[in-house]
Design goal:
The protein is of the alpha+beta class. It has 3 helices and 9 strands; from the N terminus they run H-E-E-E-H-E-E-H-E-E-E-E.
Amino acid sequence: MDQNLLRQYLSSVYEIPTPAGPLRVSLDGDIVADPSTLPDVLTRPFAILTAFNPRSMLLPRKVNDSRHAVLRDLLILGCYRVEACVGYEEDPEGTWREPSWLVHGMDRDEAVSFGRVFRQNTIVMCRSGRPELIVTDPTCDDLGKTFQGNWRIRS
């Protein structure tokens, strides 16, 4: 994977819903010695999935919204608890903003399959308090290749 693209993915900020309000995080933090010090949501398994802009091709908003609704419906039919979240560029002047779904309790293989079906370059997985960026488009890198990250809490 192109190193600039990888850096962009790792530094993307995600707003994750919590009972106390949105938690802003990215995958470019320092190693956390004790995951129990992280906010509760980051210690549980989940995936962040989207259907927007397959293979980084910008689609019209209406098409993206339709794809995203289909993804949500499929996840709910699969009996997953799904919550809206969003990913965006760290740069305040940035224009990239992508609605996503936080999918609680999804396993890695199924999340990778959803990423492939919806033609995403990568997905985000969280297991044992550690985020992973996983390649789901074999034209970017080896399918399933994982880039380990560390949570960084943003203010």
